[in-house]
Amino acid sequence: MDKIVINIIQKLKNKFPIFGINKIRELTRLIFEISKKEKIDFNNIINQIDETNYEKVKNLLLKRRYPQTYNIVPKDSFYLPDINISQKEQANLNLKDFYPKKVYYTNEVINSELYNRVKILYPKAIFTEIQSLKQFQKENKFSIYEYNRRKENLFLINEKYDFFKPCPCTKNVHCCNYSILNIGYGCLYECSYCFLQGYQNVAGIIFPCNIDEFLDINKIKPLNNNLFDLPRVGSGEFTDSLLFDDITLFSNNIVKFFKENQNIFFEFKTKSTNINNLLKLGGSRNIVISWSVNSEEMIEQNEYCTPKLEERLLAAKQCVQAGFSVGFHFDPVIFYSDWKQGYKKTVNMIFDFIDGKYIKWISIGSLRMPATLKKVIENRFSENEILDEELLLAYDGKLRYESTKRIEIYKYLSEQIKFHNSSIVVYLCMEDSNVWNLSKFKK
Ligand code: SF4
Ligand code: SF4
Question: What is the model's pTM?
Answer without folding.
Answer: 0.96
